[in-house]
Amino acid sequence: MLIEPRSIKTEWASIAVAHLCKVSANGPYQTMAEQAARFYLQTDAKRGVQPQVVAKAIVTAATVSKPKARYVAPASTKLAIFLR
User: Fold this and answer.
1) Which residues, including other chains, have CB under 8 Å from residue 66's CB and lie 6 or more apart?
2) Which of 1, 2, 36, 44 could crosslink 13 through cysteines, CB 3.0-4.6 Å?
């Protein structure tokens, strides 16, 4: 069974961005890292879902009598997955 969440609103993005900027500062990838950092923070702010949405999908998958092979959270993520 696969639980496939979209971006989740947690502190992970800010921690990852801080580390990315720290290790890339003054290096050849600094500009690319700064662009990636902006993207991650914007994506998290605009499209991130609350952790409870993902938790609900996990509980559903774990408690139904005949679980599906794949769950996405939120349901609107299905379109993004299809377009990949």
Assistant:
1) none
2) 44
- pLDDT bracket for residue 14 (50, 70, 90): confident
pTM of the model: 0.63
Q: Which residues of 38-77 are buried (b: 16+ CB within 10 A; e: fewer)?
A: eebeeebeeebbeeebbeebeeebeeeeeeeeebbbeeeb
| Both structure tokens of 41 | 């923070």
Phi, psi dihedrals of residue 8, rounded to the nearest 5°:
-110, 135
Q: Residue 4 burial by CB count (10 A; 0-12/13-18/19+): exposed, middle or buried? A: middle
